[in-house]
Design goal:
41% of the residues are buried. The strands form three sheets. A four-stranded antiparallel beta sheet has the order 2-3-4-9, with no helix packed on it. A four-stranded antiparallel beta sheet has the order 5-6-7-8. It has a three-stranded antiparallel beta sheet with strand order 1-11-10, with no helix packed on it. It contains eight helices and eleven strands. It has 283 residues and is an alpha+beta fold. It starts with a helix and ends with a strand. α1 crosses α7, α5 packs antiparallel against α6 and α7 packs antiparallel against α8. Bound molecules: FE2/S2 (inorganic) cluster. The site of FE2/S2 (inorganic) cluster (FES) has 11 residues, from loops.
């Protein structure tokens, strides 16, 4: 399976379909508000993995009920719940997928294909059950569960091996020693300007607004873009930094994500001033 997943990651032939689908998703899900909703910006975590709990739970439960006598209606109800709830979960997944790196999109495409086959089989199972063909409904449901399980395995590779939609910046904290470190003279820190500094080889950005000073990890949580090269914008009265790569936007006075594709907040570091020198440390 590992060799197969590595082949999928490197299979450029998938890009023909992937690039077309990416353009279609981006032109369909155009409003920023819709994209942010589907990414899970409001939740502070990606929405897609949370949404898939409903179809997976319903379909797994139906698989158990299908083994028991007298549970036809309950199993059919769960198949219906799973089939209907899989649609918005897939839309949220496609929205995340369209902003991934190319190798991640290849694996994501196969993940989506396996789950689409699973969804089609469950829709067929539901139709068969509604026509009273329970044997066929059960067979299609078990085939659907197999396809969805393959999709889940591929999704696991995408998230845990390739790091799709997990914070790309937070592991930087493990490189920092747990002690206060100097990062510059306060007097030389300009107002309302992004400054990049290194702390234990970890890149951070500094932003001063009046007496408030922000020290934030520089690597964007989405795909490691350089926030230090980003633009500062005022959104709802808050100064925010916009990632130059895909536009994820974070509040400079708290690190909260304001616009995706990142659904994760950005990590701030505590500050103090000793003898006019600004210091920072691990949170
Ligand atoms: S790297 Fe994608 S938004 Fe920053």
């Amino acid at each position: 399976m590992r060799a197969l997943m590595n082949k999928i990651e490197q299979n450029a032939a998938l890009d023909r379909v992937g690039d077309r689908l990416q353009r279609a998703v981006q032109s369909t899900l155009r409003p920023q508000r819709v994209r942010d909703l589907l990414h899970g910006v409001w939740l502070g975590h990606p929405l897609h993995p949370a949404m898939v709990q409903v179809p997976v739970g319903a379909w797994m439960s139906a698989a158990v009920l299908d083994l028991l006598p007298g549970q036809r209606r309950a199993a059919a109800t769960l198949i219906a719940v799973g089939t209907v709830s899989a649609v918005p979960a897939a839309v949220a997944g496609l929205n995340d997928w369209a902003a991934l790196a190319r190798d991640q999109r290849r694996v994501g495409l196969v993940h989506a294909a396996a789950n689409s086959v699973g969804l089609a089989l469950y829709a067929g199972s539901l139709a068969a059950r509604l026509r009273g063909r329970d044997g066929m409904g059960r067979a299609l449901a078990y085939l659907g569960l197999s396809a969805a399980s393959a999709g889940a395995y591929i999704g696991g590779h995408l998230a845990y091996k390739q790091g799709a939609q997990v914070s790309q910046s937070i592991s930087e904290l493990h490189l920092m020693a747990d002690e206060w470190k100097p990062i510059g003279d306060l007097a030389t820190l300009p107002q309302r300007e992004l400054i990049t500094r290194e702390v234990d080889d970890v890149s951070v950005i500094l932003y001063r607004h009046g007496d408030e000073i922000t020290v934030m990890l520089e690597r964007c949580p989405h795909q490691s873009g350089p926030l230090g090269e980003g633009e500062v914008q005022e959104i709802d009265g808050h100064a925010c930094v916009v990632c130059p790569w895909h536009g994820s936007t974070f509040r400079l006075n708290g690190g909260e994500v304001v616009h995706g594709p990142s659904a994760n907040d950005q990590q701030l570091l505590p500050t103090r001033v000793v003898n006019g020198v600004l210091q920072t440390k691990l949170p």
